[in-house]
Amino acid sequence: MSLFRLTLRNVLHRRFLSLLTVCAVAITVAFIVLLTLSKESVEQGAKKGYGPFDLVIGAAGSETQLVLNTFYHIGAPTGNIPLAVLDQAKQDKSVDQAFAMTTGDNFKGFPIVGMDSGYFFTRYGDSKLQEGIMYTRTGETIVGAYVAESLGLKVGDTFSGAHGLVQEEGHESGEAEHGENHVAGEHDEEHAHESFHYTVAGILPELHTPDDRAVFTTVDYAWAVHELAPEEREITAVLVKPASLLGAHDLKQTLDGSNGVQAAYTSKAVSDVLNAVDQGSRLLSVLTAICVLLAGIAILLSLIAAVGERTKDVGLLRLLGKSRAYVWLTLTSEGLLVTAAGLIFGLLLGHLGAYLLKDALFAQAGIQIEPYHWTPEHWLIVAGALSIGLLSSLGPAFRMYRMHPLALFKS
């Protein structure tokens, strides 16, 4: 009987214990794979989330909040700033491109973002729309590919937005808790949004950025919805593509902290977020190490049980002329076979989990996880799993290796 067939027979003879060991290895590997794919996706998504806009200008407050809201459509804006800030940025010789952004409304939970159409050509080049044309008039929109797919929107469809960054429900309960003046103001606000209709002029291609889950329209949409006079018009942020890093520094020094305005380096704010993610990853690394230790213990206990059950079988093999090395290989190969089976199932389970979670992660943070991606860390996972399986097998195998064949029959 070949070594492989003997090993397979021994594993199948102890189906239940072998299955538990395979599950322990598979769950550990799947957890590590999912963590690796998620971390890489967060890092890649964060880095390409802001394009060439190295500086963002907005209301004073948290730089991280400003950047996350402007580029990733997460959270609330820090406030509004005067429209004159846009003119000041455009007139600065150190600025290559500057685009105003207005936000604050949503359509079924997806943010409505007012943005100059030049933003798309500056960031994405000559990428063509999936359908339709770019908006040119107030009320026309282009929608991200994820929004169009999720809501079934097509070119020519019309809709009305709602105030706020998320879709609100249960207005009746809210009305009972507030005064009449507030309720009247709330009704006026709702009426203003419901009476303003948007038309889908185009659908963006899949950009694999947070822009896939936003609705874009002209900057003046918020002014039109609320019927604001020219002197009342404000914007949420200014996205700046500087001509040079030195120019970005000079503009930041000029605007930062003046009249309730802040200028933030986009890359620094994103780095702060990634550092926070790294801190969380360290905690998960501790949990991962515990899972790896438990998987190694499971393999070790499985092989110790195998040694106790097959002592006489091994003794018979020795009396039939099989070498100590052969006996050693039967046990180590059993540990490696169980580990390899758990490794394969774990890799499949980890990528399946990434596939099932990709929509939820993208919907919440605009981060596109790649469930089919094979990273360099995968090879480390494979090598690490097989090494743990081998190390866990050495103790029981060495114990059998040292015993005299006649002593194996003593129990």
Could you characterize what this model shows?
With 411 residues, the chain is an alpha+beta fold. 57% of the residues lie in helices and 15% in strands. Strands 1, 3, 4, 5, 6, 7, 8, 9, 10, 12 and 13 form an eleven-stranded mixed β-sheet that branches. It is elongated. The model is unreliable at 168-185 (pLDDT under 50).
Write a compact overview of the structure shown.
By secondary structure, this protein is of the alpha+beta class.
What would you report as the Rg, rounded to the nearest angstrom?
31 Å
Q: Which term fits the overall shape?
A: elongated
% residues in beta strands: 5-15%
Structural class category: alpha+beta
Q: Give, in order, the helices and strands.
A: HHEHEHEEHEEHEEHHEEHEEHEHHHH
Average pLDDT confidence is 79
Stretches with pLDDT under 50, minimum 5 residues:
168-185
Number of helical elements = 14
- Strand count, sense and closure of the main sheet? 11 strands, mixed
Which labels suit this protein?
single chain; 411 residues; alpha+beta; 11-stranded mixed beta sheet; two-stranded antiparallel sheet; 14 helices
Give a topology summary:
Layout: H1 3-13, H2 15-47, E1 55-59, H3 63-72, E2 81-82, H4 84-91, E3 95-107, E4 110-115, H5 118-124, E5 131-132, E6 140-143, H6 145-151, E7 158-160, E8 162-163, H7 171-175, H8 180-195, E9 197-203, E10 215-217, H9 221-226, E11 234-235, E12 237-242, H10 245-255, E13 261-265, H11 266-309, H12 311-319, H13 324-365, H14 376-402
Parallel strand pairs: 4-10, 6-9
Antiparallel strand pairs: 1-12, 1-13, 2-11, 3-4, 3-8, 3-12, 5-9, 6-10, 7-9
Helix pairs in contact: 1-13, 2-11, 2-13, 2-14, 3-11, 11-13, 11-14, 13-14
